[in-house]
Amino acid sequence: MAAILKKLTKKCSGNSTIDIIIKNSEEFDDANPFPIESVRVKRLIKRFPEKINLIEKFAKEAYPIIHEDVLTLITDFLNFKLEHGSKIEKSIYKDMTVPKFVDRLLSKRPLVFCGIRDLHLLQGNHGKGCGGFEAIGKDGEERAPRIMKHYLTYDEMKVSALLGCSCYTLTLNKGDRYNKGITEEEINQFTPDALIV
């Protein structure tokens, strides 16, 4: 299991350069507009040009947080779904590795998903609404845009609850509850960077 964990963390540490980070941010923003601009990398490097290397370092060091036992669970989950899953699930999981599945668990989530009615905001201008996730991955029941190719099934959501992400970030302000991403000019009044989990 340690070998899988090592492979997973190696796979997740990419060759992020500031140009790639900005390009990815722009592509994400085209489909999912950021509510504020002050936290965008392109704004941070204008404010802190001396910290470009630090921003790249933070991006490269972002990683999933996952207990070793969850890797065994994922392997068992994939094997079970390949044997007993729907045709849609078998198609998605056909060549799935543990690192690819962890990536799926992190990247195929809606932007917002909450409440007893599954209120959600979907990625990529797919809109917002409530419900519809119970059909994802079920043969003959999926309805676009809520399809397994783009979003997690309820079974996957249960596994995804067992992992998270961690990364460092630059800070703009003291971080109080109502800060709204407003940039504070007196940067010596708060810590210059922080760890987000």
TrEMBL record:
Q: Which InterPro entries match?
A: MavL-like
Q: What is this protein called?
A: Putative LOC101735359 [Bombyx mori]
What is the source species?
Lepeophtheirus salmonis (Salmon louse)
